[in-house]
Design a protein that fits this description.
Blueprint lengths: L1 H9 L8 H10 L1 E4 L3 E9 L4 E6 L2 E7 H7 E3 L5 H7 L1 H7 L3 H11 L3 E2 L1 H8 L8 H14 L3 E2 L8 E3 L6 H11 L3 H13 L7 H19 L4 H18 L10 H5 L6 H6 L6 H11 L4 H8 L5 H13 L3 H13 L5 H10 L10 H14 L8 H8 L3 H5 L5 H13 L5 H14 L4 H5 L4 H4 L1 E4 H30 L8 H26 E4 L13 E7 L4 E8 L10 E3 L3 H6 L7 E6 L2 E12 L10
Parallel strand pairs: 9-10, 12-13
Antiparallel strand pairs: 1-2, 1-5, 2-3, 3-4, 6-8, 7-8, 11-12, 11-15, 14-15
């Protein structure tokens, strides 16, 4: 074609300086344009001095020879793009030979290319199935082959070198030039993973272990988490290579035994994949007290680490102790948002007796507390909004008054914006239609007043006096004593006492609201034409034909063994204002029941009633 282009130049149809470039394009048969991408030259028209080129989306595109010489670059026939264009089936067959295909790709890009570049060239035209599986196989083969340098980071290029270097030499070279103990740990992991493919595994492992030990010692005090991770890597390599321990080298127990080591922060500082190993190492180092340390740390670590700690405790038969810890901090509203995030996600049968409305109240408290922290996290809030079933599940078995109190708390909470709050309230209403009036604002006098028995009212009053006259004053003394210890920023006793103060004050407010709404009753001489508070209802279960007796009393009355239920329970709400012979449907013990009312009697007559 060179002579043809020279004739065109002599005739003045193209410039002479374009002859060489056009000759290369014609001989290559493929080219690239900076905007249109890869193209295949289909025809060379010497009469009209133009190429016809197939570009993606521009098949049969005509291009003036002079413009082509200036804007196109030739693509050699052995380039991966040219091979795909001229014989795609052959390239696909070559995919079975991973190294041959990778070599072609790397040579096409000057001897090196990143994994992303390799993938973009081969998928989906060449590798039509599982790229991840294909690439993992290719990586393993490249690591064994002495011509390829495979980096640990995905952003770094894979390099092809003509001079072959053994895997052992490459890994040891990477280890020697690695800067810092963290970088060395990453190389040690590669050495351990490929130990079976090394020429002399004993020599390689011995060199690495000998170099790691001084580094571990130098990091023991300043960066104990890195030292711990390095000990794990060293011991794994030694086990893989079959080497005995070196006399005098530092152990995991020595890391944990250091003065001032903080269990939770240290484990949080190592990769999550090593959390379980770190926990097990602490168990081995402190067999007598690891359970107490784990339980104490759960409220101060991330949700991921809390899950790992809980898993270890459950696996070792400490489920009851774990539940005791969780119940205490949840009921006291001192649980952290991270712990509650894990607990909310977990929701397994192991914790069914703890999962209730108090968990959601604790979540609100934790999020409100987080608003005053420098490092605030929205992870718990986002989880609550995303988990559509959370609120319904936590409140499924709660008394209606508890649901109403929870609804009020949610309405007043500052942690959700108006739109999100409406969404959460809608979920509460869907699960418990009885709170609709609270959400819509159509609260009636009946809603605002609580009918309670005199006995239950006295119990609540006694609880209130105990709180006001004993618990709150005792807490104030604890705060004063803790304040005397000095620096409040690091004073854990002071912080704990202040947190307890918040809980006690909230309990006081809740009791005051409840007592203000309470209306004492003796429920004597209740009307018996319809069901109401102070009546005994005998009803037949239509499915089993068994009779059941329900004594409906005040909001705070409940004695399942005697059949006494609050008039605010779902069962009582279904029976209220119904007559003898009426059939009612309600949910009991998780299943729907249909009952027929057989009789209605007064629980207490005037003659039998006691003076208030």
């Amino acid at each position: 074609m060179k002579s043809e282009f020279e004739k065109l130049a002599a005739a003045g149809k193209i410039e002479g300086r374009h002859v060489a470039a056009l000759t290369q394009l014609a001989e290559a048969g493929c080219c690239t344009h900076r905007s249109w991408g890869f193209g295949r030259i289909k025809t060379v028209d010497t009469v009209f001095a133009r190429f016809t080129i197939d570009f993606p989306g521009k098949a049969g595109h005509p291009m003036d020879l002079g413009f082509a010489a200036e804007s196109l670059k030739p693509v050699p026939k052995d380039h991966i793009l040219a091979r795909k264009a001229t014989d795609l089936d052959a390239v696909r067959h070559l995919a079975a030979h991973h190294l041959d295909l990778i070599k072609i790709v790397l040579n096409s890009f000057g001897g090196k290319a990143t994994p992303d570049q390799i993938q973009s060239v081969l998928v989906p035209d060449v590798i039509t199935d599982d790229w991840k599986k294909w690439w993992e196989t290719a990586r393993r083969e490249m690591k064994k082959d002495g011509h390829f340098i495979v980096p640990t980071k995905k952003t770094e290029p894979v390099v092809y070198q003509a001079l072959e270097t053994s895997l052992q030499d490459r890994l040891l070279a990477d280890f020697r030039k690695a800067k810092g103990l963290k970088a060395r740990i990453a190389v040690v992991a590669e050495v351990t993973k490929t130990i079976a493919d090394l020429n002399d595994r004993t020599a390689a492992a011995s060199e690495v272990v000998a170099a790691l030990n001084p580094d571990i010692a130098s990091h023991l005090r300043t960066q104990p988490a890195v030292a711990l991770e390095a000990i794990f890597a060293r011991d794994e390599l030694r086990q893989a290579a079959g080497l005995p321990p070196v006399a005098g080298e530092l152990t995991v127990a020595q890391v944990w035994a250091q003065e001032g080591i903080k269990f939770g922060p240290l484990i949080e500082s190592i990769p999550a994949t090593k959390h379980h190993r770190a926990l097990e190492s602490f168990k081995t180092a402190y067999p007598e007290r690891w359970v107490d340390v784990f339980r104490g740390a759960m409220n101060f670590v991330s949700a991921k680490l809390a899950k790992e700690i809980a898993s270890v405790l459950v696996h070792d038969g400490k489920l009851n102790l774990l539940k005791e810890t969780l119940a205490k901090i949840i009921n006291q509203h001192t649980a952290s948002s991270e712990l509650l995030l894990w607990f909310g996600r977990e929701r397994t049968e192991d914790f069914v007796d703890i999962l209730g409305p108090e968990v959601f109240r604790a979540m609100l408290t934790a999020m409100e507390r987080d608003q005053f922290q420098e490092k605030r996290s929205n992870r718990l809030r986002d989880f609550i909004l995303e988990d559509q079933a959370l609120i319904a599940e936590l409140t499924a078995t709660a008394d209606i008054e508890v649901i109403k109190d929870l609804t009020r708390a949610l309405k007043l909470s500052p942690v959700f914006d108006d739109m999100d709050k409406r969404s959460l309230l809608a979920r509460l209403v869907k699960a418990h239609p009885a709170v609709q009036s609270l959400v819509s604002g159509e609260q009636t006098k009946q809603d605002s007043a609580l009918l309670v028995s005199w006995e239950s009212l006295e119990r609540r009053r006694a609880e209130y006096h105990e709180l006001v006259e004993k618990k709150i004053p005792a807490n104030s003394k604890e705060i004063a004593i803790a304040r005397s210890y000095g620096d409040l920023r690091e004073n854990h006793e002071y912080k704990a006492a202040k947190e307890m103060q918040k809980i006690l004050m909230r309990q006081k407010e809740d009791l005051e609201v409840a007592l203000n709404r309470a209306r004492g009753q003796d429920f004597a001489n209740a009307k018996t034409d319809v069901v109401g508070p102070g009546t005994i209802v005998v009803a037949t279960d239509l499915a089993t034909n068994q009779r059941e007796t329900f004594t409906i009393l005040g909001a705070w009355d409940s004695d399942p063994d005697k059949g006494i239920i609050s008039y605010l329970t779902p069962v009582a709400m279904a029976l209220l204002n119904r007559k003898v012979g009426d059939e009612v449907e309600f949910e009991l013990h998780g299943s729907k029941r249909r009952h027929r009312i057989e009789s209605i009697a007064a629980w207490k007559t005037e003659a039998a009633s006691q003076p208030a």
